[in-house]
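Human:
Class, as today's exercise, you are to examine the entry below, and be ready to discuss the fold:
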Amino acid sequence: MVTHSPTLSRRQLQRWLLAGAAGGLSLNWAALAQAQASALASLTNADASAGVKALLTQGAGAAIDLLGQSGGYLNNPLVRIALPSQLNQAAKLMRQFGLGAQVDGIETAMNSAAEQAVPQGKDVLLGAIQGMSVSDAKGILTGGDTSVTDFFSSKTRGGLTERFTPIVQQTTNQVALVQKYDQLAGTAARYGLLRQQDANLAGYVTGKTVDGLYTVIGQQERALRQDPVSAGSALLTRVLGGLK
């Protein structure tokens, strides 16, 4: 008969499962599920909460460092801010008439604005992390690939948008063609071809800046889950390692 410890990690459970299958043993699937759940249950609420806070703090800091440097958005195909797809035809026409440099100038300005704005969101993110509840923490630990994005989106989107908008506005106003964009986008929005929040460049870029930040935070979080030892935190290693 196979026995189990209430603190078995997922990796130990996988070995147990393979050993049982190889030996032709009849496994108790209810007991297996219970043992998997107990790996998380064995963590104290304080450990789970502190571990997730450490995970998100490290991931958010790394994301801001990556995106807040020159080329952080522009040179990252995952988050690079392009013109709204609904304006691609207009951009294509501009290129055909020899105005490709102006189109490139708008896109460079959009991404530069994002790179200048994103470092100003650090305290908004840290405030949300410090204020998270135990249920938030355990939801992130056991959630899927979007659990971190969902948490930050629900807690910080408004604050980040408020913080980023004036910085983006100041940067994009320096580009001569921004008014042309706003005129074109405003017309597209009136005909239902573009979302109203994307009808001016500052609003569009701010939204994309926030989305890109969440994307890279999630990327950093997944990397730490896969290799918790690299985090350099004994607590984080124990919390994440127990879920593998």
Notes: The chain is about 70% helix and 0% strand. The radius of gyration is 23 Å.
